[in-house]
Specification:
Elements lengths: L2 E6 L5 H13 L3 E6 L9 H4 L9 E4 L6 E4 L1 H11 L13 H16 L2 H6 L2 H6 L8 H17 L12 H14 L7 H11 L2 H7 L6
InterPro entries: Glutathione-S-Trfase_C_sf, Glutathione_S-Trfase, Glutathione_S-Trfase_N, GST_4_C, Thioredoxin-like_sf
EC number: 2.5.1.18
Keywords: Transferase
Amino acid sequence: MSFELYADSLFTSPYALSVFVALTEKGLPFSVKTVDLGSGEQRQAAFADRALTARVPALVEGEGHEQFVLTESSAITEYLDESFPPPEYIALYPQDRRQRALARQIQAWVRSDLVPVRVERDTETVFFKKPCAPLSETAQTAAAKLVHVAERLVQGPQHLFGDWSIADTDLAIMLSRLVRNGDEVPVKLREYVDFQWQRPSVQAWLARHQPG
């Protein structure tokens, strides 16, 4: 079984990155296709008729009448973890049910809250070091909330739940919006982001931004 992953053409979607990392960590064969969000390609029938929510990432499994298409990154990563479970495949979520619920909580939170940070520190800041203006007062409040919550979650420079989980990647991407711009972030959180950024699956995504 192989998969197709639809990502944005600039490779700046943190949610596409999350699914890319999940597929890579699982060791599943997949190809990457891109959608030009700037031109509105995601709204054209060729993509929108297949991807229910007309958003990236979209994961395509199988062919023909057996084809299954799923969007929304956390739904995709949960589907992959249930379809290709440990011990044969690496776990994307903690095995303890409460830790697993906390991991899902983190995923839901970084996708639904902190909008001012996501707007004023978009992921072009993360991947292309786009210069940004100082945070607005509203964004400063959101950034302070992000740092406060992350400090409670991150107990060391490595992983949230002892072993790596996809929540580590998602939280690190959110924090990197501040870190990569040089905004004030506690050393512990900077070290956590740097550690997550060195994971081979994340580096494989970052390599797509390199010339050639």
